Amino acid sequence: MIRGVFLLLLCQLVGEVLARTLNLPAPGPVIGLALLAAGLALWSRRHPAPDVDTTDVGKAANVLLASLSLLFVPAGVGVVQYFDLLTRYGVALGVSLIVSTLATLLATVGVFLMVKRLAGAA
Amino acid sequence: MNWRLWVYLQTTPLFWLTATLGAYLVADRLSIAARRHPLVNPVLISVALVAVLLRISDTPYETYFDGAQFVHFLLGPATVALGVPLYKNLALVRRNLIPMAAALLVGAIVAIVSAVVIAAWLGAPREALISLAPKSVTAGVAMAVTEKLGGLPALTAVLVILTGVTGAVVVTPLMNALGIRDYAARGFAAGLASHGIGTARAFVVDPVAGVFAGVAMGLNAVVTPAIVPLILPWLVH
Question: Which residues of B touch A37 (CB under 8 A)?
């Protein structure tokens, strides 16, 4: 378990260092995500039947991801604190936020399926 | 309650850390009892429970965060942890690279333009429009974008969280109503429009949706900060 947590933290740490020193546009944890996936891909080449879920890092990752919602609670409570900021700008932001989220979901899923069909047909 | 005991509890992270986990357990139990109905969102319920506790006990957010920061900190390692399901589904992700690239670009632009245009039309002031533009990306990244462009980072944080909860609540009924059963596409849309909170929802619905949501969230954290400064001058004068 400790080894798994260590590997996750190490990936994030290296990600943060790379993001800052190389001025990369991606945030540190996202670079860490890519590093971990790339590391696992390399690791799997040297194992005949790799099962990542039984590894330390796999177990640690699955524990964290199973409770992903929990991790947004502290930031969410912060929102309540700043609720007056939102009301100051009236309903404009609320309406825009809801409509825009729906539009984004529709546009994204629509383009994904359309291009997938076109690419499949080509 | 004994006043001295209360003062002691306020000075250690123990109480509010315990309260955060407890509120989440109650919310998660409710979500399971509602068979994971999208409206019974565990983030929303936990936040409401904690907010009520803070209000009743007249506790400032700073005191609360002293305890809750340990949970908040785990967002970083949890983002890294998305590398594990990504690795497990690498072949499927590779096969969908072209649809992903197209959906990423269009989705990111729609997220920014639709939000700013609608809010401007409804009369929101300039600094609110700037703060709204990066609302679909993860909070830390969005706040950095806003700060650079002269918006209000605190307002951005609020809008980002609300966008996340909105996306997590509407994505399942919306996709079901449209009869879309491609969980790669559904998840990708959830992660792009509503970052980590949408990703958390996607993992509850389907593991493949979760993977694609995580990938979309990661990619959008790169694309949106790059295009907001290009698009915003056209929308906000």
Answer: 83-84, 86-87, 90
Contacts of A103 in chain B (CB under 8 A): 110-111, 114
A19: left (phi over 0), alpha (psi -120 to 50) or beta: alpha
- The whole-angstrom separation of Cα A30 and Cα A65 is 15
ipTM of the assembly? 0.92
CB B78 within 8 A of CB A65: yes
pLDDT tens figures, B47-70? 999 999 999 999 999 999 998 999
CA distances from B86 to A19, A33, A34, A50, B79 (A): 21, 9, 9, 15, 11
Containing B192, the helix (H) or strand (E) segment is: helix B183-205
Length of chain B as a residue count: 237
Chain B: residue whose CA lies nearest to A76: B47
Rounded to two decimals, the pTM is 0.91
What is the SS3 assignment for A111?
A: helix
Write out pLDDT tens, residues B138-174: 988 999 899 989 998 888 988 999 999 999 999 999 9
Both tokens of B61, joined, read 């957010």
Q: Which residues contact B45 (CB under 8 A, 6 or more apart)?
A: B23, B26, B27, B30, B31
For B90, B121, B191, the CA distances from B195, given in Å and listed in that order, are: 20, 26, 5
**How many residues appear in chain A?**
122
Q: Report H helices in B37-152.
A: 42-57, 61-73, 75-81, 83-88, 90-95, 97-121, 126-132, 139-149
